[in-house]
Amino acid sequence: MEKTIIKYGKIFQKVLKEAGLDDTKQNISVYEKRLEEMYHSENFKKHNIYPSTNTPHIYAVIAMCLELKKYNLTDQQIIDTINKGFSRRREFFRRLIRIIDRLPGSYKIAEKWNISDHEKREKDGSLTYEYFNVSDGKIEYNITKCIYTEMFETYGIRSLCKIFCMTDTTAYENLSRHVKFIRHSDLSDGNCCHDEIIEKRN
After folding, report:
1. How far apart are CA 162 and CA 183, in angstroms?
2. Do residues 125 and 50 make contact, with C-beta atoms less than 8 angstroms apart?
Protein backbone atom coordinates (compact mmCIF):
# COMPACT_ATOMS: atom_id res chain seq x y z
CA MET A 1 0.00 0.00 0.00
CA GLU A 2 2.99 2.33 0.44
CA LYS A 3 3.26 3.14 -3.28
CA THR A 4 -0.49 3.71 -3.46
CA ILE A 5 -0.37 6.14 -0.53
CA ILE A 6 2.52 8.08 -2.11
CA LYS A 7 0.64 8.22 -5.44
CA TYR A 8 -2.47 9.66 -3.85
CA GLY A 9 -0.37 12.00 -1.72
CA LYS A 10 0.89 13.59 -4.95
CA ILE A 11 -2.65 13.87 -6.26
CA PHE A 12 -3.78 15.48 -3.00
CA GLN A 13 -0.96 18.02 -3.35
CA LYS A 14 -2.39 18.90 -6.77
CA VAL A 15 -5.88 19.14 -5.23
CA LEU A 16 -4.62 21.65 -2.66
CA LYS A 17 -2.81 23.67 -5.34
CA GLU A 18 -5.91 23.80 -7.54
CA ALA A 19 -7.89 25.14 -4.58
CA GLY A 20 -5.23 27.68 -3.64
CA LEU A 21 -4.76 25.97 -0.28
CA ASP A 22 -1.61 25.24 1.69
CA ASP A 23 0.15 22.38 -0.10
CA THR A 24 3.04 22.04 2.37
CA LYS A 25 4.82 18.76 2.98
CA GLN A 26 3.28 18.71 6.45
CA ASN A 27 -0.28 18.79 5.07
CA ILE A 28 0.54 16.07 2.53
CA SER A 29 2.07 13.99 5.31
CA VAL A 30 -1.07 14.40 7.44
CA TYR A 31 -3.18 13.20 4.51
CA GLU A 32 -0.90 10.22 3.88
CA LYS A 33 -1.02 9.24 7.55
CA ARG A 34 -4.81 9.43 7.56
CA LEU A 35 -5.01 7.29 4.41
CA GLU A 36 -2.60 4.72 5.84
CA GLU A 37 -4.71 4.43 8.99
CA MET A 38 -7.85 4.06 6.88
CA TYR A 39 -6.26 1.32 4.78
CA HIS A 40 -5.44 -0.62 7.97
CA SER A 41 -8.90 -0.15 9.48
CA GLU A 42 -11.62 -2.72 9.99
CA ASN A 43 -13.86 -0.61 7.76
CA PHE A 44 -11.45 -1.05 4.85
CA LYS A 45 -11.33 -4.81 5.37
CA LYS A 46 -15.12 -4.89 5.37
CA HIS A 47 -15.42 -2.79 2.21
CA ASN A 48 -12.50 -4.20 0.20
CA ILE A 49 -14.29 -7.39 -0.84
CA TYR A 50 -15.97 -6.33 -4.09
CA PRO A 51 -14.01 -7.22 -7.28
CA SER A 52 -15.92 -4.65 -9.35
CA THR A 53 -15.04 -1.79 -6.99
CA ASN A 54 -11.68 -0.03 -6.58
CA THR A 55 -11.86 0.39 -2.81
CA PRO A 56 -8.31 1.81 -2.38
CA HIS A 57 -9.20 4.60 -4.82
CA ILE A 58 -12.52 5.34 -3.12
CA TYR A 59 -10.84 5.48 0.28
CA ALA A 60 -8.18 7.84 -1.08
CA VAL A 61 -10.93 10.21 -2.26
CA ILE A 62 -12.75 9.91 1.09
CA ALA A 63 -9.51 10.83 2.89
CA MET A 64 -9.18 13.89 0.64
CA CYS A 65 -12.74 14.93 1.44
CA LEU A 66 -12.09 14.61 5.17
CA GLU A 67 -8.92 16.70 4.92
CA LEU A 68 -10.66 19.39 2.86
CA LYS A 69 -13.43 19.56 5.45
CA LYS A 70 -10.85 21.24 7.73
CA TYR A 71 -10.98 24.30 5.47
CA ASN A 72 -14.73 24.80 5.98
CA LEU A 73 -15.42 24.33 2.29
CA THR A 74 -18.94 23.60 1.09
CA ASP A 75 -19.73 20.19 -0.39
CA GLN A 76 -19.79 21.69 -3.88
CA GLN A 77 -16.41 23.35 -3.36
CA ILE A 78 -14.93 20.03 -2.19
CA ILE A 79 -16.42 18.18 -5.16
CA ASP A 80 -15.12 20.76 -7.64
CA THR A 81 -11.69 20.82 -6.01
CA ILE A 82 -11.24 17.05 -6.07
CA ASN A 83 -12.49 16.79 -9.65
CA LYS A 84 -9.84 19.34 -10.68
CA GLY A 85 -7.21 17.28 -8.90
CA PHE A 86 -8.17 14.27 -11.03
CA SER A 87 -8.57 16.34 -14.22
CA ARG A 88 -5.93 14.44 -16.19
CA ARG A 89 -7.61 11.11 -15.51
CA ARG A 90 -11.07 12.54 -16.24
CA GLU A 91 -9.90 14.13 -19.50
CA PHE A 92 -8.54 10.79 -20.72
CA PHE A 93 -11.96 9.18 -20.28
CA ARG A 94 -13.71 12.18 -21.86
CA ARG A 95 -11.59 11.82 -24.98
CA LEU A 96 -12.20 8.08 -25.14
CA ILE A 97 -15.97 8.55 -24.80
CA ARG A 98 -16.00 11.31 -27.44
CA ILE A 99 -14.35 8.89 -29.88
CA ILE A 100 -17.02 6.28 -29.10
CA ASP A 101 -19.69 8.98 -29.53
CA ARG A 102 -18.70 9.33 -33.19
CA LEU A 103 -19.53 5.69 -33.88
CA PRO A 104 -23.01 4.89 -35.24
CA GLY A 105 -23.27 1.94 -32.84
CA SER A 106 -22.45 3.95 -29.71
CA TYR A 107 -25.80 3.14 -28.07
CA LYS A 108 -25.14 -0.59 -28.45
CA ILE A 109 -21.73 -0.07 -26.86
CA ALA A 110 -23.36 1.77 -23.94
CA GLU A 111 -25.95 -1.02 -23.68
CA LYS A 112 -23.21 -3.68 -23.45
CA TRP A 113 -21.38 -1.63 -20.80
CA ASN A 114 -24.48 -1.41 -18.66
CA ILE A 115 -25.44 -5.06 -19.01
CA SER A 116 -21.88 -6.16 -18.21
CA ASP A 117 -21.63 -3.81 -15.23
CA HIS A 118 -25.00 -4.97 -13.93
CA GLU A 119 -23.88 -8.60 -14.10
CA LYS A 120 -20.64 -7.86 -12.21
CA ARG A 121 -22.41 -5.78 -9.55
CA GLU A 122 -25.13 -8.36 -9.04
CA LYS A 123 -22.53 -11.11 -8.74
CA ASP A 124 -20.39 -9.40 -6.08
CA GLY A 125 -23.22 -7.55 -4.31
CA SER A 126 -21.69 -4.08 -4.55
CA LEU A 127 -25.01 -2.72 -5.86
CA THR A 128 -28.56 -3.82 -5.09
CA TYR A 129 -31.09 -3.31 -7.90
CA GLU A 130 -34.82 -3.02 -7.36
CA TYR A 131 -35.00 -3.61 -11.11
CA PHE A 132 -32.81 -3.55 -14.22
CA ASN A 133 -34.89 -3.49 -17.39
CA VAL A 134 -33.53 -3.77 -20.92
CA SER A 135 -35.87 -3.21 -23.84
CA ASP A 136 -35.46 -2.17 -27.47
CA GLY A 137 -33.51 1.09 -27.37
CA LYS A 138 -33.80 1.63 -23.64
CA ILE A 139 -32.29 0.62 -20.31
CA GLU A 140 -33.87 1.68 -17.04
CA TYR A 141 -32.74 0.70 -13.56
CA ASN A 142 -33.30 1.55 -9.94
CA ILE A 143 -30.49 1.00 -7.40
CA THR A 144 -31.52 0.93 -3.76
CA LYS A 145 -28.18 0.10 -2.14
CA CYS A 146 -24.66 1.07 -3.16
CA ILE A 147 -21.32 0.25 -1.54
CA TYR A 148 -19.93 3.63 -2.65
CA THR A 149 -22.45 5.57 -0.60
CA GLU A 150 -22.03 3.14 2.29
CA MET A 151 -18.29 3.85 2.37
CA PHE A 152 -18.85 7.60 2.39
CA GLU A 153 -21.60 7.29 4.99
CA THR A 154 -19.24 5.29 7.23
CA TYR A 155 -17.13 8.45 7.47
CA GLY A 156 -20.09 10.79 7.87
CA ILE A 157 -19.86 12.37 4.42
CA ARG A 158 -22.48 10.51 2.37
CA SER A 159 -23.38 13.63 0.35
CA LEU A 160 -19.82 13.84 -0.99
CA CYS A 161 -20.28 10.50 -2.74
CA LYS A 162 -21.74 12.75 -5.44
CA ILE A 163 -18.14 12.78 -6.75
CA PHE A 164 -18.64 9.19 -7.92
CA CYS A 165 -22.33 9.56 -8.78
CA MET A 166 -21.33 12.30 -11.22
CA THR A 167 -19.16 9.88 -13.18
CA ASP A 168 -22.19 8.62 -15.13
CA THR A 169 -23.58 12.06 -15.91
CA THR A 170 -20.16 13.28 -17.05
CA ALA A 171 -19.71 10.22 -19.26
CA TYR A 172 -23.08 10.56 -20.96
CA GLU A 173 -22.61 14.28 -21.53
CA ASN A 174 -19.86 13.21 -23.92
CA LEU A 175 -21.94 10.42 -25.47
CA SER A 176 -24.83 12.54 -26.66
CA ARG A 177 -25.12 11.92 -30.40
CA HIS A 178 -26.93 8.60 -30.13
CA VAL A 179 -27.66 8.32 -26.40
CA LYS A 180 -29.95 10.24 -24.07
CA PHE A 181 -29.23 9.86 -20.35
CA ILE A 182 -31.80 10.82 -17.72
CA ARG A 183 -30.90 10.76 -14.05
CA HIS A 184 -33.96 11.07 -11.86
CA SER A 185 -32.09 10.69 -8.55
CA ASP A 186 -28.95 9.26 -6.98
CA LEU A 187 -28.10 7.79 -3.62
CA SER A 188 -25.76 10.57 -2.47
CA ASP A 189 -28.79 12.68 -1.54
CA GLY A 190 -31.79 10.50 -2.36
CA ASN A 191 -33.40 7.15 -1.63
CA CYS A 192 -32.35 5.49 -4.87
CA CYS A 193 -30.34 5.84 -8.05
CA HIS A 194 -32.87 5.90 -10.89
CA ASP A 195 -31.50 6.24 -14.42
CA GLU A 196 -32.73 5.87 -18.00
CA ILE A 197 -30.44 5.33 -20.99
CA ILE A 198 -32.31 5.81 -24.25
CA GLU A 199 -31.22 5.39 -27.86
CA LYS A 200 -31.71 8.50 -29.99
CA ARG A 201 -33.32 7.52 -33.26
CA ASN A 202 -33.70 9.78 -36.28
Report:
1. 13
2. yes
C-alpha distances (whole Å) from 58 to each of 6, 7, 27, 127, 146 are 15, 14, 20, 15, 13
* Whether 75 contacts 158, CB under 8 Å: no
Strand 193-199 to 179-185 pairing: antiparallel
Give residue-wise pLDDT tens across range 46-92.
999 999 999 999 999 999 999 999 998 999 999 999 998 887 777 77
H or E stretch covering 44:
helix 42-47
For the chain, helix (H) and strand (E) counts, in that order, are: 9, 4
Residue 132, φ and ψ in degrees, nearest 5: -140, 100
Q: What is the pTM of this model?
A: 0.92
The answer to whether 44 and 55 are in contact (CB under 8 A) is yes
